[in-house]
Amino acid sequence: MNKFHQGGSDSRSDKKIGVAPENNLPGRSHGIHLETLQCTSEAELHEMTKLLAQENPNDFFAYVNKSLWQFNLYPKYQALEIVGESYSRAVKKIRKGEEIPNLRGWYKITSLNIVREYSRIELKQRKIKASMSACLDEEYTSGDEELPRYSIESIKRIINNELNYKILCLRVLHEKTWDEVCQTLINDGDFNSELSKQFIDMIKRRFYRALKKIPKPRE
After folding, report:
1. Residue 157's domain spans which residues?
2. Do 155 and 100 share a domain, yes or no?
3. Which of 26, 105, 137, 181 has the most crowded CB, counting CB atoms within 10 A?
4. What is the model's pLDDT at position 24?
5. Does residue 130 lie in a domain region?
6. Mean pLDDT value of segment 117-130
7. How far is the C-alpha of 66 from the C-alpha of 69, rounded, in Å?
């Protein structure tokens, strides 16, 4: 499901990320810029990412793990997920004809930006959850200035899509992982699909579109 493998150096992990033998590393004889890790094509991006993960897997993920701890996002988010999103953004950048002059540095900067984005999303989710939970507990009062001004019905109207609302509830209110969200949707018959990276990415896009529709709750 993932393009990367976090940690470990046994033969199984090498096979999982498709690492070539040391004397035949991709790019050592095919013109890849190992000094600066300059990336100009999807093929180079793929091979250099494998090379980075192989050279020192712990170092490759350490910076991301540190950022996740710093923003209180661990263990809900894993380094592998952040690096995977960084890779997807790198692919989009390359497809637009843009070069990445230093892939190692680009991964660090981009992964930190993604962690910050997720941190803002988590803050918004917590505020929405506080409002929805209060409604469910019948403790919400219009005079309570400590709670965001959202009711369950108002969120439904804003999202205007029952399935996207269900995804939002599973992720925000019930705090399910993405795998659990997707498996629930499959088990409930909402989608005729198998659990896969493509399916999870599609559900994520629906979730973020729904979340974006909801204005930022008042402090």
Report:
1. 151-213
2. no
3. 181
4. 38
5. no
6. 86
7. 5
